Task: structure prediction
Amino acid sequence: MIQGAIFDADGTLLDSMGMWETVGDRYLATLGITARPGLRAELFPLSLAECAVYLKRAYKLSLSHQAIEDGINDTIRSFYRHQVQAKAGAKEFLTALRARGVTCTLATATDRSVILEGLARTELLPLLEGVYTCGDLGMDKRSPALFHYVREQMGTEIGETWVFEDAVHAASTAFQAGYRVAGVADPYSDQRALRKVSHLYLPDLTDFPGFYEKAQEI
Result:
């Protein structure tokens, strides 16, 4: 049975993980600089502020740390405003859920103003009852508190609430907390690990009837 659905954004509804993988390269390109191989691995564990420090030092940038942070944020925002695409079937999937009386919301770690740009561009925003961000709530997806909060806003029970995620750590959190989990495939996540923490594994969002039929039985 499914009464409520909590969707992740990046990698689940939006085809955007590739941008996050290459944001350093994209930012440097705006300065006319070609990134050296391996930049992603260097930036991956760093916060935005730490990324700015690293880029200034490694590429001898004359900009201030704040200017570099602002530039990175502008690069991210530009992508969501002008380039991001919905993942295949996302709009139709949300529309079909709503037609069956399922409340659909979104919970994301991406900044609210940025994600709203992407949702508006892809025409997914009107299909969501609420958009919740880790930054606004002071929570992350390594704890079930975020999922609990969003579910409470929807007024659904844990066993009737499905969480749609491409990230293994977030899917695992929801799975262990008792939610029904639909793992959504994305090239940038570990598919084998995702299957292990999903009640249903979706290669994409194009087969809504197949998902809905199985979800009613779980």
Strands lie at 4-7, 103-108, 130-133, 161-165, 180-184, 200-202. The first strand starts at residue 4 and ends at 7. The first helix runs from residue 17 to 30.
